[in-house]
Amino acid sequence: MVIFNTQGIVLRTSRYSENDVILTIFTRNLGKVSAIAKGAKRNKSALLPSAQLFAYSNFTLKKQRGMYRVSQSEIIKSFYDISYDIDAFSYASYISRLVENSLLENQTNRKLFNLIVKTMYLLSQKDVDKEFITAAFELKFSDCMGFRPITDRCSVCGDESDQRAIFNIEEGGMLCKKCAENFSGNIRLDATTRKLMNYILSNEIETVSRAKVNKVLTKELSKLMKQYLTAYVSNLNMKSLNILDDLHKF
Ligand SMILES: [Zn+2]
Question: What is the DSSP string of 171-221?
Answer without folding.
Answer: TTEEE-HHHHTT-SSEEE--HHHHHHHHHHHTS-HHHHHTS---HHHHHHH
